[in-house]
Amino acid sequence: MTSATPSSLMQHRDKYSGKGQSRHAWYAMNLVPGKRRFGVYRFLPVFFCIGGVMEWVMINVRIGRETFYDVYRRKKSEREYQQKIEDGLIVLTKPVAK
């Protein structure tokens, strides 16, 4: 009789868990044509299109009043302004009361 350590039990469980899900994923992947000629690179156009859609959404879809790029440009401008203040290129002065 051998004693099973917790780590060996975890390896056994990880190795054999989700067999059905793996089979479904493998079946779906094999439906995509070009396996012999392109190998795993046959999925590249799909991910290219997903990236294009994500880019379009970040540019054109407004959440509230801003898009992703509006927020990006504003934050970049704030960081540049803060860096100029730290470098001494911009001196903040208090307004003189009249």
UniProtKB/TrEMBL annotation:
Q: Does the keyword Zinc-finger apply?
A: no
Positions of region (Disordered): 1-21
| Start-end of Polar residues biased regions | 1-10
Give the Pfam families listed for this entry.
UPF0640
- The answer to whether keyword Membrane applies is yes
Q: Which UniProt keywords apply?
A: Membrane, Transmembrane, Transmembrane helix
Identify the domain of life: Eukaryota
Q: Which residues cross the membrane?
A: 39-59
Record-given protein name = Ubiquinol-cytochrome c reductase complex assembly factor 5
Phylogenetic lineage: Eukaryota, Metazoa, Chordata, Craniata, Vertebrata
Q: Which gene encodes it?
A: LOC112222277
